[in-house]
Amino acid sequence: MSADLHAATRDERRLMFVHAHPDDEASKGAATAARYLDDGAEVTLVTCTGGEAGDLLNPSAGDARPDDMGAIRARELEASVAAIGFTRNHVLGYVDSGYHMDPADVPDGTFARTPIDEPSRLVAGLIRRERPQVVVTYPEDGGYPHPDHIMNHLVTVRGLELAEDPEVALDDVPGGDAEPWRVPKVYASTAFPPERLRAIHQGLLDAGLESPYTEWLEQRRDERDPGPDPDTRIWCPEHFERRDAALRAHVTQIDPDGFWFGTPRDLERVLYPYEGYLLLRSDVLVNTPEADLFAGLDLPLLPPAPGTDPADADGQATPVGSDNAPAVGR
């Protein structure tokens, strides 16, 4: 790829993240969003619920009454969005379902109990308005079995179908009067793919430090399938600081002395300087692992990561642990 492609106008790239709750935008894809924003792309956020059912998870956050949690988390989301720099944030306003192992326990009137086409039409309208070439949602299982995360995947997939169908009238929802739009590439975010856990865990042990992932990995060893590794890795260590600022903005949910900050950032930048994604759908031929969510599209790509030959920067990632990749513990 010629270097002039990296100097081209970037404002034609449009990326959309669809998340379930306030704080998901900070824990899944924040550094990626920040990197694309700094490179000139438009990056929009859709937040499906208000996070009202969230527990107080930060012991230093003081008291927060359950009745106040929705308003508090709305303010936290606003601060997180500002830290990352999203172009726009669309809040759908559904009520957080809360975490329930048994789907029968999900309360009526919450997001996961809503007829699927209702929020899907809202997402479809926003897709028609924003016209993203890439949408990021969750895996089919939600990434973990929170009812709202599973619903988020279902709503996004259905919204994509409605947005592209010229026979579907969406005039009653914001953006629905725009022309139908098909999103050519769709991904699922991965907060802790197996390769990331292994790399950081072993790197911490090699450095003589305690790993916050020891128990987690022991549990995964008993699983027949620990889950897939990413199809796409976005190199973004220079934007971990923005991710961390977004995490800290969610004062009720994130303990600054807890799990999310258990790895020294200078070490994380060496061990696993990426955020990973699973490719759910592509209208273009792709070669995995990718290094850019827009790989294969007729659009500019991110500048290559250090150590990558610019002449070979075609949107493919260097395999983790290869001679040309940053050193990664295994």
TL;DR?
The protein is an alpha/beta fold.
Description of the structure:
With 330 residues, this protein is α/β, with parallel strands linked by helices. It folds into 2 domains: 249 residues, LmbE-like (Rossmann fold), CATH 3.40.50; 34 residues, no CATH class. Helices cover 30% and strands 13% of the residues. The protein is built from 9 helices and 7 strands. A 7-stranded mixed sheet has the order 3-2-1-4-5-7-6, sandwiched between helices. Helix 3 packs antiparallel against helix 8 and helix 4 crosses helix 5. The radius of gyration is 20 Å and the shape is globular. The two termini are 31 Å apart. The N terminus and C terminus are likely disordered.
Give the SSE layout:
Layout: E1 14-19, H1 24-27, H2 30-38, E2 42-49, H3 69-84, E3 88-94, H4 117-130, E4 134-137, H5 147-164, E5 185-190, H6 194-206, H7 214-221, E6 232-235, H8 240-249, H9 265-271, E7 274-282
Parallel strand pairs: 1-2, 1-4, 2-3, 4-5
Antiparallel strand pairs: 5-7, 6-7
